[in-house]
Specification:
With about 180 residues, the protein is α+β, with helices and mostly antiparallel strands. About 20% of the residues lie in helices and about 45% in strands. The chain has three helices and twelve strands, in the order H-E-E-E-E-E-H-E-E-E-E-H-E-E-E. The strands form four sheets. The protein has a four-stranded antiparallel sheet. Strands 5-10-7-8 form a four-stranded antiparallel sheet, covered by helices on one side. Strands 1-12 form a two-stranded antiparallel sheet. Strand 3 and strand 4 form a beta hairpin. The longest helix is centred in the first third of the chain and has 21 residues, at about 1-20.
């Protein structure tokens, strides 16, 4: 019986300590100082090709282009709260040729507002060579990004031994955009 009373007493005491320790004054003025910092990641571009795909009709094809329309910056909320953006590219190349990727940012009138490029190294022994490149947009570059209406991507195979339909290796590229926002009350 004494043991049962001790257990009940211990339980009541534990609950009292928990309730007492959790009771503190709540400062409702903190809601006026609310600041949210969401980070949004978005898939941007994916590219996967074998070396033989750069050879068509008996001729080496050393350049390929594509574009995407961009409308994220037409929203005034996004323009008002975006503080930084990053475009992250990861390339795995096992072809014995290096590749340059150029990204052009065009406004709604197809005028160039920003550009950058980077190179993925050749793989002489057809092992996978990893390249990572990040373009950061802050300040003037961020303002140029916000007037972008179209992104143009051009991949160019750099000079080297000619590829044909039997050439080994492949190139794989994945990319994402990362947007950093600050939302204040």
């Amino acid at each position: 019986m004494g043991r049962k009373v001790f257990k009940i007493y211990s339980l009541v005491l534990s609950l009292a300590v928990c309730l007492w320790s959790c009771a503190e004054e709540i400062d409702l003025n903190q809601a006026e100082e609310l600041e949210l910092s969401p980070v949004i990641e978005n898939s941007l571009l994916f590219f996967d090709a074998f070396a033989g795909e750069f050879f068509e009709g008996g001729t080496e094809v050393n350049e390929s282009s594509d574009f995407i329309e961009v409308d994220i910056f037409k929203n005034s909320f996004n323009r008002s709260h975006l503080i930084k953006a990053e475009f992250v590219f990861e390339v795995i190349n096992s072809i014995d040729r290096s590749y340059e990727l150029q990204i052009d940012f065009l406004d709604d009138l197809d005028q160039l507002v920003h550009t950058f490029s980077f190179e993925a190294s050749a793989s002489p022994d057809n092992s996978e060579i990893y390249t990572k490149y990040t373009e950061v947009f802050e300040g003037n570059a961020l303002r140029a990004l916000m007037v972008t209406g179209k992104l143009s991507f051009t991949i160019t195979m750099q000079p080297g031994d000619e590829v044909n339909e039997n050439s080994p290796g492949r190139i794989n590229m994945q990319s994402k955009s990362v947007f950093y926002f600050i939302i204040k009350d």
